[in-house]
Amino acid sequence: MAYEFRLDENGFLTAGAILEQPTLVIDELVVPEWGGGKIRLKMLSAKERDDFESSMVKVTRGGRQQLNNENFRARLVQLAAVDGEGKQLFTKHDIKTLGDLPAAGLQRVFNKINEMSAFSEDDLKEIEGDFDDARTDDSSSD
Hints:
Blueprint: H1 15-19, E1 26-31, E2 37-42, H2 46-55, E3 57-59, E4 65-67, H3 72-80, E5 81-82, H4 95-99, H5 103-116, H6 121-140
Antiparallel strand pairs: 1-2, 2-5, 3-4
């Protein structure tokens, strides 16, 4: 599902055409691993995606940053799964339970959210790589 943007007479987008777009784009996905039912998923806004990426970082008591990839698939599903009114289907309290589901169904939903929100494997590798670089820098300064 894509937005329909209006263009000016020269084929350029105007600020108004960009800013007046609806913020909620919802798609449905059939999840055979979850009984063949459908789930509604929303495209993340740029802010939601940034917030999710930021949640991949945790700061230790010593002030060091560490990769926080615990239940990251479940956290993304919790953020993007919505009901018929576009409200979040799951709360943060559901993340552990979502993470305990069989991986195949959760991965199917996670992949669809990635597709809708322009996430790629390279994005996740880049985040992980930033921490690999930090660990290398720390170890060379000891």
